[in-house]
Amino acid sequence: MAPPVRDPEWAGRRKLLIAHERLDPATFAKLWNALIDAGDPGIEILHAYTVKENLRALLALSGTNPDRSLIRDRLWRLYEQAATSTSPEVHRFAATVEQWWPAIEAAIITDYSNARSEGYNRLAKHQGRNAFGYRNVHNHRRAIRWACTRQYRRASAAISKVPGQVR
């Protein structure tokens, strides 16, 4: 029986998700060369990979009080790399970044995020689905509040257990 044929794109799929700086240089070179040798499909994957890394470089500016020219240069590099790709997915990705750019720029400049409120919203919706069928609206709301304050309750419980501290 012949050994299975390995697809280099499929074999390296997990490595493509790892940040470039976390990859061993030899591993990265092997992955890069395998994708180059794969021809056009491999080149498309490399374009997508470099666009992803350019986005990571752009988002890494968040919280560093960056100069607007640095933000503009990194955004331009991302768009330029996306434009050289023949992949429609990469073009859609660049269009999405362009559409959401005011919010992305605000997040980079101010270093604020709505992640916490989005997380609580997700918890509340999930708990609401779990509590479907409660006959008492008060109990339904209580279940949602209980789920959304769990982390706070853990922190205050840990503080109250500190010896010698009066609460």
Uncertain runs: none
Radius of gyration: 23 Å
What is the terminal separation in angstroms? 72 Å
Helix content: 55-70%
Order of helices and strands: HHHHHHHHH
The percent range for strand residues is: under 5%
Total number of helices: 9
- Round the mean pLDDT to the nearest integer and report it: 81
The largest β sheet comes out as:
none
Number of strands: 0
Structural class: mainly alpha
| Shape label | extended
Protein architecture, described:
With 167 residues, the protein is an all-alpha fold. The chain has helices at residues 8-11, 25-37, 40-59, 68-84, 88-99, 101-110, 115-130, 137-148, 150-160. The chain has 9 helices and no strands. 9% of the residues are buried.
What brief labels describe this structure?
167 residues; mainly alpha; 9 helices
